[in-house]
Specification:
Blueprint: E1 8-11, H1 18-29, E2 33-35, H2 36-44, H3 48-55, H4 57-74, E3 78-80, H5 89-98, E4 100-105, H6 108-115, H7 130-148, E5 151-154, H8 160-173
Helix pairs in contact: 1-8, 2-4, 3-4, 6-7
The structure holds shikimate-3-phosphate.
């Protein structure tokens, strides 16, 4: 299934479904899953919105790059990355080199619908209109997602299980 021994890392915009797809991918592969955001929250004892408010974005980027290192060292086979992990060159290069990186693509409109209820937990959205902010983040980041990713999988109009099927099919084909 995943003959290549490198871990599968899911990247993409908030609302792409990285966490839920990683969870289900882990179930299908009977493999442990690491969700970097969830691990950072658990370890720090603070929600990400609070970490951003208290320490700022730069400190959060350091935390997530460090968490990626630890998860890779531990050999966890399925990783859900935060949407901004690709911003810094070091984690981006590490992903590209040492993981099978799948970019879960989502349109800003669909992502906005999916995350509407949890926008308060998402400091990068600010207070403006969610869809246009997501469009802006996608424009800023799409070249970085593309650089890190080996594969792309569309998620609009697909259920998480359909996305898992597509991810597994793409991984097998590649
Ligand atoms: C961020 C995405 C979030 C989280 C943090 C910053 C971003 O993760 O890491 O709020 O910069 O896009 P998800 O993509 O899992 O929501």
């Amino acid at each position: 299934m995943n003959d290549d021994r490198r871990p599968i890392a899911l990247i993409g915009l908030m609302g792409a479904g990285k966490s839920v797809v990683a969870e289900r991918l882990g179930q299908r592969l009977r493999a442990p899953v690491a969700d970097l955001d969830a691990l950072i929250e658990r370890e720090s004892g603070s929600p990400i919105s609070e970490l951003f408010a208290r320490e700022g974005e730069e400190a959060f980027r350091r935390r997530e790059a460090e968490m990626l290192e630890r998860v890779l060292t531990a050999g966890i086979p399925v990783i859900a990355c935060g949407g901004g992990l690709v911003i810094e060159p070091a984690p981006r290069d590490r992903l590209r080199r040492d993981c099978r990186v799948v970019w879960l693509e989502v349109s800003p409109g669909e992502a906005a619908r999916r995350i509407e209820a949890t926008r308060g937990r998402r400091p990068m959205l600010g207070n403006g209109e969610v869809r246009s902010r997501l469009g802006e983040l996608l424009r800023e980041r799409e070249a970085l997602y593309a650089e890190a990713a080996e594969l792309r999988v569309t998620t609009d109009r697909r259920t998480p299980d359909e996305v898992v099927d597509a991810v597994l099919a793409e991984l097998r084909r590649a």
